[in-house]
Amino acid sequence: MFTGIVEEVGTIKSINRGQHSAVLTVRAKTVLEGTRIGDSIAVNGICLTVRQLFPDSFAADVMHETLNRSALAQLTIGSAVNLERAMPANGRFGGHIVAGHVDGVGRIANIRKDDTAIWYTIHADSAILRYVVEKGSITIDGISLTVAAVEPTGFSVSTIPHTVRQTNLNQRYKGDFVNLETDVVGKYIERLLPSETPKQNTLTKEMLLRCGF
Length: 213
Known about the structure:
The chain is mainly β. It has helices at residues 64-69, 126-129, 161-166, 184-192, 205-210; strands at 8-17, 22-27, 40-43, 46-54, 57-62, 80-85, 104-114, 117-123, 137-140, 143-151, 154-159, 177-182. The strands form 2 sheets. Strands 1-2-5-4-3-6 form a 6-stranded antiparallel β-barrel. It has a 6-stranded antiparallel barrel with strand order 7-8-11-10-9-12. The longest helix is centred in the C-terminal third of the chain and has 9 residues, at 184-192. Its EC number is 2.5.1.9. Keywords: Repeat, Riboflavin biosynthesis, Transferase.
């Protein structure tokens, strides 16, 4: 489990590509502290398992499934990536529940300044947008953000200067692809709701209790 609070921005040191997979070596500092082989680190919001440790970096396998569902395939040597270690059981929960399992890829449609804030508008498929709600949580490249507006083709977030400075958002431009993970709670609720529920019924407290919430 992660929180979407980025600990540092690392850089891609090397990429060894196989036929349908890859091994990423990521240059880092903060996330190496206390990390052991087998630990999980989120790279641009994708949970990866550390397979090798070096004094200035770590290496992780990227499966075929991960390359197909994320924007990791577009990384090159020197690319900036957001990094976060898995949250310890006694850690502070600063963001929201993040699994590190990317739902898909979005594309930055617009970036605009609003006084001190910076707005990012992301276009995404309807399969992702169905779980995006105004004032709800969304993870963009592993960054926990609040949805400020939802449109038929995408959504927007308003970021504070600190978030932009401390993540790779300051190196993102219009047209760039980003990894998206929606709030896991909504997906579980949808899965647990009986498919035969009449359309006129609405989500109620009693229904959630029957489903285990």
